[in-house]
Each structure stands twice: as C-alpha cells, then as structure tokens.
Write a structure and sequence with these properties.
single chain; 387 residues; alpha+beta; globular
Length: 387
C-alpha cells in the first residue's frame, strides 16, 4: 500500500474519502456527512478538497427510492449520497457512493475509496497534538464533541442562519492535520496507528488496482461481509435512523448461545442496549435503530422480544432478520432473538464467525456452545472480526 501511494511515476491518482460520523451509526460505519477528494502525484498529496455531503446531494435531481427503513422511520423519499452506506458490506457502499457521485455530475473514476470514521479522526490527535481552529483547541479528548458544536449546535438553535457553508472550517482543519501527520518522523508509531484503525474497521479500503485490492482483502482491511465462510455465522448491524448523534451514549453487549444437542440446532441471541444519556438536547434523543441480524442462510426465526415484527431477507449468502427497536434515554432495552440454525452448522467441528460492524467500538461478547461433549464458554471484545 505504501509503495503504491508513494510511486514516483508522474501519474496523478484520485481517491474518494468518505468521512463518517459514527456518533450517528449507520451500517457502513457512520453518517456520511462529509467527503473529500484527494489527489496524489509522485508520492505527494497535490490536492485535497472537502465538501459537505448535503451540498453534493443538492446537485442530484434523479429520484432514487431509498431502502424502506428510511421512508418508514424518517420519511425520506429520495435516496442520496449521504445515506449511501446502508450496507454492512464496504464494497457495496463504494459502488453506491460512486453512483450518487456520478448523479451529482462528478467524475467517479477514482483509483480508490477510503472510509474513515470520526473516532479515527479523534484518535489522530494523539499523534498530531492539539490543533486550534477558530479559537477552539481540539484534542484527542474533545475533538468530536467540539466539532459537533461548531458545525451543528448554533445552526440548529438558530434556524435563520445560512447553513450552506457551515462546515467550511473543516477544510482548514484538514490542511493543518495533513501537514502535521505527514511531518511525523516516527514512522513506526504512525504505522501502528494506521494498522490499529484498519483492524478495528474504523478505516476501510477499496482500490481499483486488482493486485492491491487482493492484498487488502487478504489482510481483511476491505470491510467485506464474508461470503465463503462454511460454519455458523453472526453479525449485528445497527442503523441509527432519526436518533441524532445518540450513539455516543449507547453501550451494547452481546450474548450468543448455541445448543447443538437437540433435534434442531438452536441459537439464542441476547443484545443489551444501554442509553447512558440522562436528558435529551440538540444532539441526543431516544435511540431509534433499524437492526439487522445476519445469520446462516436458511435459519428460521422462532422468537423475538423487544423488537418489531421482522423483515426476513437474504443477502450475501446469508439470511437476515430486520427489526425496529427503541432505547429510551437513561434506560435499557434487552433484545432476545431465537432461531433455528441449518443442520450444516453441526457438520464436522463447530466453528463460528462473528463479524464486527464498522463504527461500533469494542462490544463485549459472550459465546456459549452446548454440545454432546459438554458446554463451552468464551468471552471476548468485538474489536475486530472474531473466529
């Protein structure tokens, strides 16, 4: 990757950067509020332009029907760029983002697409040190919250203020941060930071160069939903729809229990949501999510608690159960979903893959497996995909 981006071949390469705010979690990481186009030539950044995604969307005249949860939960009638990352599969979101970029009149022939979540941006301040913008000092402890106040709060509380250029300060910040990052002499520290963000899926990569993309896939930096896994499988995917930036206050915990001793293999999933905010304001509300549980193809839903009537579909060689759920401020919601697994999960040695949704942080996971040989329990943090 480093060799590709630092080539001295006098060829200009264009990359689309998707800047996702995971305080407002979406299936692909976070709400796509901003994007940037970066140009690299002879191993140097020759151009970096930022824009509010809403401004790009204003140039889209085509009416594209959105996934039904947007219309049902938010009354959105047209699907546009800012909502394009509705899949847990990053390559799928890449194609959607490029599609909407073309609809807005842009040249979508990018050499690569890179998604970056807001938490990565905040952690980058640990490398650069504080940066002052418009008289406000930003650091690794306050950057996300301070930036939200600078680009959101006063515009929400004063609707008469022009919002067209409310995120212009991000351009100045981007230049300053780029200068500081490229000036870091401790390359091993910078590499360690980058690898950590790739492993936890807060940064995801896609390249048109087939050889480079193959290397990205082998390292599992591509954010892809696994389609070639032969055992048991589980992935929970939240979509914050109409709950403002409330994911900042949401804690999740997963308990996954499998019983392989009965007539049919049965899985029971318990997902505990806790809303840690004590009051609502311009940034925080009750939590409203469209939750999808991706499970082995052919699984049959048996029971559900604390979620809506299910939407059952197939995608990526999986079955998924889609639900609407709510978590009130300063309260908890305890979800239970029980389903019958296909018989194939009992063939050979039992194995399980749990994939992480980009942007969710470190989620505690407990797995309990009951077999004819006994019961096995394992506790982990879902920092990355777990096998």
């Amino acid at each position: 990757l480093t060799q590709e981006l630092t080539k001295k071949d006098d060829v200009e390469r264009r990359f689309l950067l998707l800047l996702q705010n995971n305080m407002e979690l979406r299936p692909g990481g976070g709400f796509l509020g901003q994007y940037a186009v970066m140009k690299i030539k002879n191993g140097e950044v020759t151009g970096l332009t930022f824009e509010d995604a809403n401004l790009l969307d204003q140039r889209i005249t085509a009416k594209i029907n959105p996934p039904y949860p947007f219309e049902k939960m938010m009354s959105i009638k047209k699907w546009k760029f800012r909502d394009s990352n509705f899949s847990p599969d990053f390559p799928t979101n890449v194609e959607k983002a490029k599609y909407f970029y073309r609809l807005a009149g842009g040249n979508s022939n990018f050499d690569g697409v890179i998604a970056v979540n807001a938490t990565t941006f905040e952690r980058a301040f640990e490398l650069t040190g504080p940066i002052t913008i418009q008289g406000v000092e930003l650091n690794h402890q306050n950057a996300i919250l301070k930036l939200e106040e600078m680009v959101e709060k006063k515009y929400i509380l004063n609707p008469e203020i022009d919002t067209q250029n409310r995120k212009d300060m991000m351009k100045t910040l981007a230049v300053k941060m780029t200068e500081k990052l490229t000036g870091i002499q401790n390359i091993s520290k910078l590499a360690e930071f980058g690898l950590g963000e790739l492993r936890n899926k807060d940064v995801m990569l896609y390249f048109e160069n087939e050889e480079l993309q193959k290397a990205v896939e082998e390292a599992h930096w591509d954010g892809r939903v696994a389609v070639d896994w032969g055992g048991d499988y589980f992935m929970m995917v939240d979509a914050n729809l109409g709950a403002l930036k409330s994911d900042y206050f949401i804690d999740r915990k997963i308990n996954y229990e499998v019983d392989l001793t009965g007539e049919k293999p049965i899985a029971t999933v318990y997902i505990d949501y806790k809303h840690n905010a004590t009051y609502g304001d311009w940034r925080t509300s009750d939590y409203h999510s469209y939750l999808r549980l991706y499970v082995p193809k052919g699984s049959v839903l048996l029971e559900r608690e604390m979620v809506s009537y299910p939407n059952v579909q197939e995608e990526f060689g999986k079955t998924y159960f889609g639900f609407i759920l709510h978590v009130l401020i300063n309260r908890s919601t305890n979800v239970k979903v029980k389903y019958e697994l296909p018989e194939s999960v009992r063939e050979g040695d039992y194995k399980l893959l749990i994939q992480k949704q980009s942007g969710t942080g470190d989620v505690p996971v407990t797995v309990k497996v009951k077999t004819t040989e006994g019961e096995f329990t394992q506790e982990e943090f879902l920092k990355k995909d777990l096998k």
